[in-house]
Amino acid sequence: MVNPQRELLVADSADLQRAMSYRWTICALLFVATTINYVDRQVLGILAPTLQRELHWTEADYGDIVSWFSLAYAAGFLAAGRAMDWIGVRRGMAAAVVAWSIAAIGHAFARTAAGFSIARAMLGVSESAIFPGSIKAVAEWFPQRERALATGIFNAGTNTGAILTPLLVPWLALRWGWRWAFVATGALGLLWLLLWIPLYRNPPVNGASVAQPKVPWVSLFGHRQTWAFIVGKLMADPIWWFYLYWLPKFLDARYGVKLAQVAAPIIVVYLIADVGSVGGGWVSSALIKRGWSVNRARKTTMLAMALLIVPTTLVSRAPSMWAAVLIVGVAAAAHQAWSANVYTLASDMFPNFAVGSVVGIGAFAGAMGGVLFQRVTGRVLQANGSDYAPIFVVCGLAYVTAWAIIHLLAPRLEPAHLATGQV
Question: DSSP secondary-structure letter at 79?
Answer without folding.
Answer: H
